[in-house]
Structures are given as C-alpha cells and as structure tokens.
Amino acid sequence: MDFRRRDLGTDAAVTGVPPRPPHLTLAGRDRMRIAVDARQVFRSQRRGIGKTLIDLYAKLAERRPTWQFTLLHQHAAAVPRLAAFANLAKAGIDFPGLTRFNLWEQAVLPVSALAARADVLHAPANTGPRRSGVPVVVNIHDLIPLDMAPDAAATHAWLAQVRRAAAGARHILTGSEYTKGRLVEVLGVPADKVTVNYWAPDQAVRRVEDPALLDAARGRYGLAPGEPFAFGFGAADPRKNTAGLVTAYARLPDALRREFRLLLVGIQAEALPGFRELADGLGLGDRVLFRGYMPEGDIPALLSGAAVLGFPSRSEGFGLPILDAFVCGTPVLTGNRTSLPEVAGDAAVLVDPDDGDALADGLRRLLADESLRRDLRARGLARSKLFTWERTADAVAGVFEKVAGGRAR
After folding, report:
1. Which residues pair with 137 in a beta bridge?
2. Would you say residue 22 has pLDDT above 70?
3. Is residue 194 located within the same domain as residue 269?
C-alpha cells in the first residue's frame, strides 16, 4: 500500500453552546500524523457524517498546516473542496473479500494507520477497530437504534459494535450533551472520556437571495416561479417523522394549503410510492411534492426559498439541518426531544413530534404569522454564528493532541 501524499481532488452566552476553546492554531504539537476512516467522505451520495467530515478536515488542514492527514477509504468519489490542501492526502485500499466479516474496518484500517505512522486514528462513524496499534478517537453520534427499536436483533448487533468501539477508544467525541449523557448511562463509559463537540453549519450552505436562482431551484422540483412552499428532508426511516409532517400539513386550513405547497426531498426511491399513497389518501393531491435524492448544490436555494423548514424528528444526535436553515434565514419547526432543543435554543418552534395536534398547530402558526417568521429568522441567524468550524476543529485537534501524548513528533 502506498501512503505517499496524493492531493485530493463574537460569542454570545446562549444556553447549550459552550465557551469558545482557546485558539490552538500551531499551538501544542507542531507536527502530528492523523489517519482517518474516511469512507463516509468518499461516498457517491453523502449524508450528514460525510458532509461534516469534509468541513471538519478542510478546517483542520487550514488551522494545522504542519500536521499530516491521511484519509483512508475504500471506494472514492470526487471531493473538490479538499484538493487545495497539501497536508491532506488520500489512500484508497480495496481488494476482493473486504466486505466479509467487516475486514476493512477491523484489519485494513488499523494496519493502514500503522503504515502511515499515525499518532492518532480517527474513527468518525460510531464504530472502529477492536484492536489498534494506534490510539483511536471515535465519534459516537447517537444511540438512535436503541431508542427507536430496542428489541430488534439488528439493534443488539449494532450496539455490541458501538460498545466495543467505546471500550477500545482512547477518547470519544459526540455532538451534544444529550448524547453524552446517553453514552455514560447506556455504555457505562466515564464522563471524562467523552468530549462534547458541537458541529457547525455546512460551509457550502449560504443564504440565496437572487430571484433567478431561487426560481431555477423551484422549477427543478416542480414548483412555479415565486411559489411559496414549506420544505422538509424526508426519509423512509420512521424516526424522521415524514408521515407525521405530511399528516400535519393535511390538517392545515384550506387557505394555507392553497398558499403554501409542501416539498419533501431526499426520500429513498422505495419509499416514494408509500408516501404518495398517504398524501392521496389525505386528499392532498399535488399540494405535496415528494422527491428523491437531492444534489448538495440545490440545498442553499431550496432552504432560502422556503417559508419554513419542517424537521419534526423523533430523535437526533445533533440536527444539522436546523443550523443550515438558520444560515439561510429559514424559520424552523422541530421536535422537542433528544438533542434538538440543545441545537435550536429559542430560535425555533419546538413541538412534541408524536403529538399530531401540536405538530399541525406549530406548522399553522409559522405559515400564518409573518411576524413570527421574521422574529425566528433573526434569532436563527444570530444563533448560527455560535456554531463555528473554527471552534469545532480546534476542539477536535485538542483531543487528538491529548490522546497522542508522547507519540507526537
């Protein structure tokens, strides 16, 4: 395996956000080597973890220019944003049989980290190798399968993997105080082994105000130029509560449904017929538009053009769409459980996601009350500034330095 470098293509006091850590650029250890399980980065269709890792490692490479980062992966997709950093390299390792017995994670990953002479191996997606000659830092984002299907065989198998990863890791990173509490309670890990490190908005997301760009995005998803709409990220997973949002929309006054359509994107192809059948049964016709996977480049215009983001999830380890909506000036309706209040603070309408009356009433209030939407836009924009990639990257770097100990060069 060849591990030579190859280029890759003012805080306010707000509840739930910790003080900014000390500025650490070039502080502490001048040189370190970090190996990363970057399979989520190089997926052809990235979801939350992959996108946040791109933002994290772009910022780490910028703020730690003397460190060397090796992104280990199995199947590669282009990642243009990382191409500018000379201290970011990728190493693709793939050959027949690696899918059996999870051999890539359990054997290839730790051996590759050793070959790269890494000081730390970062396993960012809930699990990691059982044994590693390089100290491991693991991100455990949530224990959602345990919350949603505690008795399922698949949950028990997954939890066993997470438990082993937590036990074998030198340190654990997680995205919320809520999840930290669950890790301590369920996995029995010491609280001082877990660092809460909040994520930040997607750096590719920005507020779009150009009417031509907004209407071009509307047109790609079946909306008319200038047409008002509510927006949501749908999914087959019942945890995302897509059916609950559709049902809440159906309970709106006729006048609001005539004014605002509902656009739901990101729904897996196999789930689309079921959601369309639900909407037809509720008499919604084409007032609800269901779409599948959405290119990342469409997110800013759709969020910016939407009157409301509906994100009534039942459980989240963090809730990144909330911050992305705040950046775009979009008011948010979200759940009042798990980590969501921690992220949203006082800048969103929070409701019990399983209370149909509360969900419908929250959606009605937001769509009917322009002054409420205006107030939440201002609150959301202010709150989004408290979650920064500088803060996130510096905190991760501090954990890496602590874990590396005397191994750093």
Report:
1. 122, 171
2. no
3. no
Domain range holding 341? 211-384
Residue 159 gets the label, from left (phi > 0), alpha (psi -120 to 50) or beta, of: alpha
First CA to last CA across the chain, in angstroms? 23
CA distance 48 to 294: 13
Residue 177 three-state SS: helix
Helix then strand count (H, E) for the chain reads 16, 13
Amino acid at 325: A
CA distance 335 to 349: 8
pLDDT-derived band of residue 12, with 50, 70 and 90 as boundaries?
very low
Q: Do 241 and 364 belong together in one domain?
A: yes
Q: Confidence class of residue 357 from pLDDT cuts 50, 70 and 90?
A: very high
Edge-to-edge strands, sheet with 171-174: 88-92, 68-73, 33-37, 120-123, 136-139, 171-174, 194-196
Q: Band of the pLDDT at 95, cuts 50, 70, 90?
A: low
- Least Cα distance to 179 among 16, 341, 339 occurs for 339
